[in-house]
Write a structure and sequence with these properties.
Strand 3, helix 7 and strand 4 form a beta-alpha-beta unit. The chain is built from 13 helices and 12 strands. The strands form 2 sheets. Strands 2-1-3-4-5-11 form a 6-stranded parallel sheet. It has 3 domains: 42 residues, Orthogonal Bundle (434 Repressor (Amino-terminal Domain)), CATH 1.10.260; 116 residues, Response regulator (Rossmann fold); 135 residues, Rossmann fold. It starts with 5 loop residues before the first helix and ends in an 11-residue tail after the last strand. The protein is an alpha/beta fold. Helix 1 packs across helix 2, helix 1 crosses helix 3 and helix 6 packs across helix 13. InterPro entries: HTH_LacI, LacI/GalR-like_sensor, Lambda_DNA-bd_dom_sf, Peripla_BP_I. Keywords: DNA-binding, Transcription, Transcription regulation. GO terms for molecular function: DNA-binding transcription factor activity; transcription cis-regulatory region binding. It comes from Kutzneria kofuensis.
């Protein structure tokens, strides 16, 4: 199939080639109505400008936005997962004259497209908002399941939940608690549902706690779960930060890990490695780099990435096994 050209965009928008060029290079002198027509034509045709030529014509570097939705204003320093995403995106942009602009926004805040940029990489962005941002940016890629027509890099989160629970079941755990993440986060939902499905398929009754990917909430939820269900002998947490909170609460309650309660997290980053935490591994840096390249190319659909399990001390055998 022939790649759309500048002339194709101009023809569909009903404007001149020079007008399209000015819009693409963010130059003044274009009426708002014409600018909107050009942007819509770019989206409809899937037009991808030549990045080097565009930077040369504009006299400045292009920009990709990294949009992270998180209510914690200190999230970038508090959550190592975001550092891994940033590292992957920066690596993908290293050979281009392109800047990465990081936008940390609360879940309840308004998020608009940051002007006509190359596009955006989305983290924790709910599907309906991702669809809106796609129209505004022209092209976005979500790290995780998203809306139809929104390109995405999707770790197999549901299978990760299954891997975690199957591991715990094989180790003899029969009262398995699942601590999920935000309901607005499709990754968190898929991880929780994958774990719960595996528990039920084993003929067990799950214990469920609602987390939000933060340490403090995980500690509070874990304390409540073991108070209400003292027979819990395993915890599957939907991220490593949640698993770390569970470890704190279990230790404070005098529960030995893994002898009394085994713990499995999700991400397999620095938290898991430093805490001896068994964790479902997703290749965050590689996924972020791939997603960034998809933004640059304005190409790609739904890309599924397999996950694996890294077993460490937190899910060892029972002491009397």
């Amino acid at each position: 199939m022939r790649r759309p050209t500048l002339e194709d965009v101009a023809r569909l928008a009903g404007v001149s080639r020079s007008t399209v060029s000015r819009v693409i290079n963010r130059q003044p002198g274009v009426a708002p109505s014409h600018r909107r027509l050009v942007q819509e034509a770019i989206v409809e045709l899937g037009y991808r400008p030549h990045l080097g030529a565009r930077a040369l014509a504009s006299g400045r570097a292009d920009t990709v936005d990294l949009v992270i939705v998180d209510d914690d204003p200190d999230a970038l320093s508090a959550n190592p997962h975001y550092a891994r995403v940033i590292a992957g995106a920066v690596k993908a942009l290293a050979s281009n004259d392109i800047r990465l602009q990081i936008r940390l926004v609360p879940a309840s805040g308004a998020v608009g497209a940051g002007g006509l940029k190359l596009g955006a990489l989305l983290v924790n962005v709910r599907p309906e908002l991702a669809q809106q941002l796609r129209r505004g940016y022209g092209w976005v890629v979500s790290m995780g399941r998203s809306a139809p027509r929104v390109a995405s890099i999707e770790p197999d989160n549901a299978d990760g939940g299954r891997l975690a629970v199957d591991h715990l079941y094989r180790d003899g755990r029969r009262r398995i608690a699942v601590i999920g993440g935000p309901e607005s986060n499709p990754c968190a939902v898929d991880r929780r549902e994958g774990g719960l499905r595996s528990i039920r398929e084993a003929g067990l009754e799950p214990v469920v706690g609602q987390g939000d990917f933060t340490l403090a909430t995980a500690e509070r939820v874990t304390r409540r779960l073991i108070d209400e269900h003292p027979d819990v002998d395993a915890v599957f947490a939907a991220c490593d930060m949640t698993a770390a909170g569970a470890l704190r609460a279990l230790t404070a309650a005098g529960r030995r890990v893994p002898d009394d309660v085994a713990v499995v997290g999700f991400d397999d980053g620095v938290i898991a490695a430093s805490a001896g935490l068994t964790s479902v591994r997703q290749t965050v840096e590689e996924n972020a780099a791939s997603a960034t390249r998809m933004v640059l190319a304005r190409d790609g659909g739904r890309v599924f990435v397999p996950v694996s399990l890294t077993v460490r001390q937190s899910s060892g055998q029972h002491g009397d096994a």
